[in-house]
Amino acid sequence: MEKAPLAPLSGGARLRKVSFDHSLAKNKNSIPEDAPSKSESETQSVEQNCPQMLQHGSYEMVGIEKGGRQFDVRPCRVGKIISPTQRMLVPLYQRRYCWDGALYRTWWRDLCGTSPVGEHRIGKILITAMDEQLNAISGKTEEWYLCIDGQQRYTTSSICVAALRDRLLQLMRGTSSKSAGEICLQAYRHIAIPVQRHASSQEPETAPSFDAEVPVLASAMCVEEMHDDDNDEGKDNDDSSKQSSVHLELLQRLNAFLYADEALFVTLLEDLVTAQQTATTVEEWLRKKKDHLSAVSRLVPSWLDRPSYFCVLWEGLFLNSTTTSAEMGCPSQDSLQWSCKKAFDQYAAEAALPMLLHLTDTLMKAFSVMRMELVARGNVQQLFLWMQEKSLWGMGALLFNPTPGRDFESQDLVRNLLVSCFMQKEVRVQEQILESCWLQPIENVVAAHQISWSDLIQTFLQRLKPAICPKCSLESTVEQVAQSGVFRLRKDSSIVIYAHFLSYWEWLVASEPTTDEAALQQRLEHLATELMAQMAEHLQLYLQRLPST
């Protein structure tokens, strides 16, 4: 099965097969002035020149301190991966959501076929605690985890919860002409636990738990009494009250899985309802509130996935009995997250309250992951790059497919190598660097012109990479394995192009060897910025030499 790149070309259009003018190649003036003037035979390995340099192509896991306790590994229910006061961030350079229909159909079948008191393993999730972050919208200090691996499963869980929530709101709405958002807001105004506005300094006494014990007794009574033909008026009122109570508890529980701050969520609900009254489209509202959506969402996806993910979480709240998503101007309807949500909506379309209780319990309690938390001091940049390369390289890639979807492609590997140099900075700064240095000047332009990434990167290296640049260990290994016949590798395959680029990168870093970690980090950031600027410049030269259409 093929795996989706982080940023596929827009519209899925075929790449243009163009013949590039290779007169751009071998520009001697591009060799850095500080490059070592050594022959290849005299050049020491880059690892020797710069001992702190990141390792690539390693068989053993790298990026964490050896000895002692490195990971906290334990089976964990989906509802217990993080606590109600914690949030999860997918690194902004991670691959996009890439589960297709076969995967989420199997997910739903397993969800319906598993007992809430049983157990169904859905894989692993690798996380590490981040420094506490200040929420600029709520003014609160929050605990965050970085999701290094397992974002596909966690995202699918959240999309599934959103579908169950939207079906519950349909049941609560009945024949009312009100929108789902109005029904949801009305429900929160009736919840017993008072909601504290996020502007208040007073904290709620208790946080709603998405893994709280389901009101089993209440739900059992509700199911039993809904099938009781007793027409006693007093009993009917009592039944209605009990059923309404179950609706409210389940609604709060589902939303607690999706949103980290109940007070801020309610404030956004109020704004959403006001926007509906002024005929604001979903796209307009999402664009206006994008910072607030990131501030309230428990899961914050990778940078490119955020618009479609937030649309999936909120578009159902705009719906009423007569409107459709298309009529409301919903964006991201060509995304895989949207396809997954619409499939779950369809699967849950006939579910009554007892089934929704069953599915929620199963997802939160019976579905489980192997939760691996990195507790040892480590270099997250190194660990991520190792896992990225390992997904394409090594015997594990031959024996099983741990990440459904499409493989990383050459542009993903190169971009992630460069952007990972800024992982030590605040998330906001990382996002600005990705947007200004890579997405706008390079990736968006490539997508707009439907250029071959492989050809672009290869011609870039032909232009800049000097003949004296030695091969890094990964490039040497790739060549040896290709010659052995273990892998069938073409010259334009992702791992081959990435290995060539990595040799150039490591040579640049080693041209100024240092044993000071701070100095090395500063140099990595400088080189990454310079290389992205050079790639943007090369792209413009590349476009000038494309045949006119």
Description:
With 549 residues, the chain is of the alpha/beta class. The protein folds into two domains: 15-66 and 379-544, no CATH class; 71-375, no CATH class. The chain is built from 20 helices and seven strands. It has helices spanning 46-49, 101-113, 151-173, 180-188, 216-226, 233-258, 262-277, 282-288, 290-296, 306-318, 336-347, 353-366, 380-390, 395-399, 410-419, 427-449, 453-464, 473-484, 494-510, 517-544, and strands at residues 71-77, 86-89, 120-129, 133-134, 141-149, 299-300, 367-374. Strands 1, 2, 3, 4, 5, 6 and 7 form a seven-stranded mixed β-sheet that branches.
Return Rg in Å. 26 Å
User: How many domains, in number, for the residues?
Assistant: 2
**Principal-axis shape:** elongated
Query: How many alpha or pi helices?
Result: 20
Largest sheet: 7 strands, mixed
Beta-strand level of the residues, as a percent range?
5-15%
Helical coverage, percent range: 40-55%
> Would you list the SSEs in sequence order as H and E?
HEEHEEEHHHHHHHEHHHEHHHHHHHH
First and last CA, distance: 34 Å
Structural class: alpha/beta
Summarize the structure.
With 549 residues, this protein is an alpha/beta fold. The protein has helices spanning 46-49, 101-113, 151-173, 180-188, 216-226, 233-258, 262-277, 282-288, 290-296, 306-318, 336-347, 353-366, 380-390, 395-399, 410-419, 427-449, 453-464, 473-484, 494-510, 517-544, and strands at residues 71-77, 86-89, 120-129, 133-134, 141-149, 299-300, 367-374.
